[in-house]
Write a structure and sequence with these properties.
about 100 residues; alpha/beta; Rossmann fold; three-stranded parallel β-sheet; 4 helices; about 40% helix
């Protein structure tokens, strides 16, 4: 929810799980890092860590191992968490 007195501030219920969904290049990562820095679990960043860079699609399955683990740990602590990925796989979003 965005407060009316300051539209640049985003207030989320705590805890919340936010899943950003959209095509590549839509600005999801930029928006998330501007508005929700520190609570974003980025598939691109994790792909870069386990693969040859953020766009190394061959590293996606390995990167999701870490996405799942980090999200599970954060949610078990009742921490608001944002997942930044393309979000095109409905089965993965459902999990």
């Amino acid at each position: 929810m965005v407060p009316r007195d300051n539209p640049s501030v985003i207030e989320l219920p705590s805890p919340s799980l936010v899943v950003l969904v959209g095509p590549a290049g839509a600005g999801k990562s930029t928006w998330a890092n501007e508005h929700l820095a520190g609570i974003v679990v980025s598939l691109d960043a994790l792909r870069a860590m386990v693969g040859e860079g953020p766009h190394d699609l061959r590293a996606t399955a390995d990167a999701f191992v870490f996405v799942d683990e980090i999200v599970d740990l954060r949610l078990s602590r009742r921490l608001t968490t944002v997942i930044d990925s393309l979000g095109t796989d409905s089965a993965r979003r459902g999990r």
